[in-house]
Write a structure and sequence with these properties.
With 407 residues, the protein is α+β, with helices and mostly antiparallel strands. The protein contains seven helices and 13 strands.
Length: 407
């Protein structure tokens, strides 16, 4: 009895696990009407971001000009301070020289005529006229020395005061320069936050309009689910060129022969509309002891896009037919491409090599699985919907132990 109960529990667990794996992909229906409204809304938002970036760029250009002018003023002030220091040094040298000359004259008269040289010289006159003359010379000599010293000391004081003012001006200019650089950094950070983690604004607008036009060209109804329409039309007409009819996926495979998981899927926990990024991890990160190992699709499909993201990462996207709909797998940070966009790739077709291109801390593969795609023609969604709502846990389709040695 206990054995039967244990077998029943095991069976129930097995059925639950299988049902989780085999469940069809949860999708959110999107009609052309809804997509048009979304494209209009996001195009307006993106244009606002573009306008803000242009404004930021203009402000940064003005700030750079001010910083350049400030730097020139600082250089000029420093040159003026140096020039004044030369004048001060020259005046000090002249004072020293004149003091030495005056001292020598005084010493000469003291040696020649005793301690009261000036007085002895004055009272050595033989006549009143001679005395007046001698007194005048003594007075002039004394006054000359005194005036010379006073003039030189006044010049030094004036130069030192000007030097002090220039030093203060230099400090004020340095403070202004720092303030301008801080403002530039703030604007640069604002621009970076707008650009961070998202494709180029023009690229997003262009792609969204292409997705919409493609659905209309296929003849999808205004109130028809775009994803279902694209799948139905492409399967019925053998593909129509850019959307080939694909055989349904019978199984999923690991994208590399051997490797291990470095980061698990979290999904988009919160979407930050100001930076057009998701808080969370929208894929799985995989690595291997072979840092340039070959990468393969997780299932048979069609290479729907191949490109470099804004940070320089090499990215390939593959479209798969699964449970009556399309799903997409994305392979990012590749070292190299091995296929072109628009070709059929089986699960054994090498599409590239693992690498560390773009915004990456080391060689790994960032793998995403999504119900739609913003970049592939016929992907059926905008960048925001893709990032915010369409990604799924790759482990829901591919069996990923913590490490493996076969596909």
């Amino acid at each position: 009895m206990k054995m039967k109960k244990k077998i029943m529990i095991i069976c129930l667990i097995f059925i639950a696990v299988v049902s989780m794996i085999a469940l069809p992909i949860e999708t959110k229906a999107k009609t052309i009407n809804e997509f048009e409204a979304e494209v209009k809304k996001y195009t307006q938002q993106l244009e606002e971001k573009k306008s803000k970036l242009a404004k930021n760029d203009a402000e940064v250009a003005q700030i750079k000009k001010k910083i350049s002018n400030t730097e020139n003023q600082i250089s000029a002030t420093e040159a003026e301070i140096q020039s004044l220091q030369v004048e001060i040094d020259k005046s000090n040298k002249e004072i020293k020289q004149k003091s030495e000359e005056s001292k020598k004259i005084m010493e000469y008269y003291q040696i020649a005529n005793g301690e009261n040289a000036y007085l002895e010289y004055a009272f050595g006159a033989t006549t009143i006229t001679d005395m007046i003359y001698r007194m005048s010379i003594v007075e002039q000599l004394t006054e000359y020395n005194d005036n010379l010293m006073k003039e030189l000391e006044a010049l030094i004081k004036k130069n030192q005061e000007q030097q002090k003012n220039l030093t203060k001006k230099k400090e004020e200019l340095k403070a202004l320069q720092k303030s301008l650089e801080n403002e530039k950094s703030r604007i640069d950070l604002d621009s970076a936050s707008i650009k961070a983690g998202m494709p180029g604004i023009e690229e997003q607008i262009k792609s969204a309009k292409e997705q919409l036009n493609y659905a209309k060209q296929l003849g999808c109804g205004q109130s028809e689910d775009i994803d279902s329409c694209i799948y139905r039309v492409s399967q019925s007409n053998g593909g129509g060129g850019e959307t080939p009819s694909l055989p349904s996926v019978n199984g999923f495979y690991r994208p590399m022969e051997y490797g291990y998981i470095t980061q698990y899927y979290e999904g988009c926990i919160r979407y930050n509309s100001s930076t057009a990024t998701c808080i969370g991890h929208t894929g799985m990160d995989l690595s291997s002891s072979n840092k340039s190992i070959a990468i393969y699709p997780i299932a048979d499909g069609y290479v729907s896009a191949r490109y470099y993201d804004p940070a320089g990462a090499l990215v390939i996207k593959v479209r798969h037919s699964y449970n009556g709909r399309y799903i997409y797998s994305t392979y990012a940070h590749l070292r190299s491409f091995a296929v072109s966009a628009g070709v059929y790739a089986s699960h054994n077709t090498k599409i590239g090599n693992m690498g560390s291109s773009g915004n990456s801390t080391g060689p790994h593969l960032h793998l995403e699985v999504s119900t739609c795609d913003w970049k592939s023609v016929g992907g059926g969604c905008t960048w925001r919907f893709y990032a915010e709502s369409s990604t799924r846990n790759p482990a829901g389709y591919v069996n990923f132990p913590s490490s493996w040695n076969n596909r």
